[in-house]
Structures are given as structure tokens and as C-alpha cells.
Fold this sequence. Notes:
The chain contains three helices and no strands. It is an all-alpha fold and 69 residues long. It starts with a helix and ends with a helix.
Amino acid sequence: MIHAEGEMQASEKLLEAANTLSKQPQALQLRYLQTLTEIAGERSNTIVFPLPMELAESLISVKNRGVSD
């Protein structure tokens, strides 16, 4: 029961954050850059760069057109 309540509170906070970020697209870019800065400070060899889904879909579309030619 306690775990479920924690999950509910976490989901509410995530929804609140998503609503805030959706009002200002620049805020999402700044958050992304802040996350990269935090990751770069760690002693890790791997950094994952997320791509916007629109870009990924267009790359897949171009690749599929090249295969059928």
C-alpha cells in the first residue's frame, strides 16, 4: 500500500513537470543540456543522446526508401 502511494505521488509530480515543460519548449532543451552536463561529470564512458522521435522516424523512412530502390 505504501509503495502504491509513492508511485501515485511520483506519477503526479511527473505529470506536473511534463505540463510545465510543455508550456515552454526552451525549458526542455535547457533541462536536456543540464542532464548532459551532469552526465559528463561522471566517470562513465557512455553517453546516450536521445533523438526526437520525428528525426528517428524520418531517418527510418529514408533508410526504407533506399532499400526498396
